Amino acid sequence: MKRRMTARRVVRFAVPGILLAFVTSVAVSKAQPAATAKPTTKPVPRATVAPVPHLVALRMKFQDFVKDPKRLDALNKAIGVMKSRSTAVNTSADYRRSWEYWSAMHGFYGPKAQAGLLQDAINDAPASKKTFFNGLHDLTYPATPAGLAAKVWDKCEHGTLEFLTWHRMFLFYFEKTLQASAGDPSLHLPYWDYTDPTQIQLPAQFAQPTLPGGKPNPLFDQRRRSQTVKLDPNTTNVDNLLKKTTFDSFSEELEQQPHGSTHCAVGPGCPYPLMGDVPVAGTDPIFWLHHANIDRIFECWLKLGGAVPDDLKTLPHSFLDGTGSLVTKTYATLPIDYAYDHATNCGRKPTHIFKARIEGVEQVTSLAQVQGFQIKGLKSAAKLPKLKAMPVTQEAVTLSGTELVLSDITVAGPPGVLYNVYLSTTGPNPRKQYVATISFFGMNHHGKRRTLNRNIDVTEALTALKGTAKETPDVQVEFEAADGTQGPQPQPESVNPVAVKVGKIQLQVRKQ
């Protein structure tokens, strides 16, 4: 039985130099001319890592990928072929290489599904969301090959430390199926780089129902919030995320934001089809470019010094290859044959190389805390007790991290919204700083509710609120309903009257 791991346990980190997915920036720069970079200073690379000898191709940011029409044609062909196979006899090899089959590997609805029956989900959805279930149906395991679907369907990892390793392997074998479907081994999955604030809108190539010649556009799906959805650039800023020095904290934060927040923003909302609902999220083509970007952010963190725990590297996972045959691999044995075109300087500001650390062994000092807070309606605020002395000098910012920890977040049902989190001053002329977004993607998947935890670096936010004052001001934590997009935010009727509870709100300083 596959082991489940809690999000706060001590692990032994492997030496970063042996990470399979580690590809040097030198190899990437030789593989393709440099694209326009974000205005940032490049971190000094570690010189001890040798290039990966079998590196053959790049996963590219989508706006560069489409500059060659042949690449876009190959992607359209591959997805079109896979979608056409969804109507094949479900015991055939063609069906095992279909769009429906691959989406079901992430999750599905049906009598054997962890999500249960589709009609139950429709019954639970508000009237405004029911139309987004159109075109979906329950699935059953194909009778033959016997037991195969049960081994590979409904295996997505959310809320566990296998989230990043499982999804990397999932994308790898999906890419092999894309290549086989296009008849083009040079096709590699592009990514939607919404970490760049100029690329926060859904790519235009996904928004048109038909291609220039009049054929249906394989990238289009009408079940999105809109075809011009723009993500809130605050939710896609990964600068503080890339500073995380432990795998546990990095994985948990990345899964929440920008992973979960993007799912819900494109959604429309969580847990509603397509992108907002785990069992059918893989049905939307943008899912795959979204997850390619999540995997790229993961790779960026590895290059900065992050490391995958040894015990995660050896867990086996089963998928299908490009022929529709079963393959079982571990993260350590995945034969990576690609690199990302931009896997350094991934943030909007320079990020320093760090040494990976073990979760739970660092010295932590509590500055203030509030127990048992409930988020209600569009806005709620939790005033913190007077802060203890806080490091705000440049040296302190470098040597220590001030964090906002939101522990044991639970919900009684879908809130219907995300919640943006701010730190703000109290009293006259209040000032506030955005620090995070809480998302609820996948919270009730796998048939049980779970708790969420956020561990947010707020060093810069608190320093900005203090300004030139001699003393640290009184602060509060504000929660504001949001939908993850840029523009008008939710109205009161969008918020479901369910309890959203935070077990503990704490400001703390973690010695780095």
Characterise this structure:
With 512 residues, the chain is an alpha+beta fold. The protein is 25% helix and 17% strand. The protein has a 4-stranded antiparallel β-sheet with strand order 5-12-7-10. A 4-stranded antiparallel β-sheet has the order 6-11-8-9. A hairpin with a 5-residue loop joins β2 and β3. α9 packs antiparallel against α10. The relative contact order is 0.16. The N terminus is likely disordered.
Strand fraction equals: 15-25%
**Helix fraction by DSSP (H/I, runs of at least 4):** 25-40%
Gross geometry: globular
Based on secondary structure, the structural category is alpha+beta
The overall pLDDT, averaged over residues, is 86
Strand arrangement within the widest β-sheet reads 5-12-7-10
Determine the N-to-C terminus distance: 36 Å
Q: Report the strand count.
A: 12
Instruction: Profile the largest sheet.
Output: 4 strands, antiparallel
Over the alpha carbons, how many angstroms does the gyration radius reach? 23 Å
Total helical elements: 13
Order of helices and strands: HEHHHHHHHHHHEEEEEHEEEEHEE
Which stretches are poorly predicted, pLDDT < 50 over at least 5 residues?
1-55, 394-399
